[in-house]
Amino acid sequence: MKLPNEIDGYLSSKDFSANTRLNYYYDLASFHDFFEERTISEEALELYKLHLSALSPSAQRRKLSSANQYLLYLYQNKKINRYYKLEQISQKKIDKTHSYHPKIKEFPEFYGPLTGPGQFLALLILEFGLNFSEIQKLKWENFNWKFKYLTVEKSGIKRVLPIREKFSMRVKAIKNADELFAKSRQFLYTELKKFTPYSSKEIREQYILHQVKNGKTIYEVAGLLGLSTITTLEKYYR
């Protein structure tokens, strides 16, 4: 049988804090993504465990625990006809020489007097973790300078990102930002390259690293970036 989607009902049945509820939602959403084209069975659950094996031990334990509690809920509420349980994965000693530990950079050159569109683009990526497609959808009216926040909409979901004073003081006097936002991806790429040798991907990674350094949880960072899963962020928390 197919895995029934009862995530909302399961979360409503629990007295979780808002943060815990979000944690479970991300784990169970990825669990359902895996079973989208699969029927639930012992064999499929073993494949799911194998799917998790590249993650950190703590991430594996969390995801398996979330799945087990959810499977129990489905069985107790007669949504599935038998109770399935995932056994925890036996952990091998991790070779930390192969862990992913990129260095944090500060980019002081980004914060000099504004000299052109490339610098503005670099700041948008570093300060908010935006990619080019998100920048192209921006409007100058999305920046609220009075209350210091930027509204970004992606796939119908709005996220509100704080504006730091060091960013505000350098860019809020810009008069023609909407012209830049309307340009092609190739134009944005070329302008960024004129200003810095770092790619948009490298700068965006620095945004993530700074959020991790500042104590943000993996789920908080996913929310800031507008991600539907935490998979691409796992490597920063190993």
TrEMBL record:
Keywords: DNA recombination, DNA-binding. Residues 1-75 form the Core-binding (CB) domain. Gene3D superfamilies: 1.10.150.130, Intergrase catalytic core. One of its GO terms (biological process) is DNA recombination. Residues 89-238 form the Tyr recombinase domain. It comes from the Bacteria. GO terms for molecular function: DNA binding. InterPro entries: CB, DNA_brk_join_enz, Integrase-like_cat_sf, Integrase_catalytic, Integrase_recombinase_N. This is Site-specific tyrosine recombinase XerD.
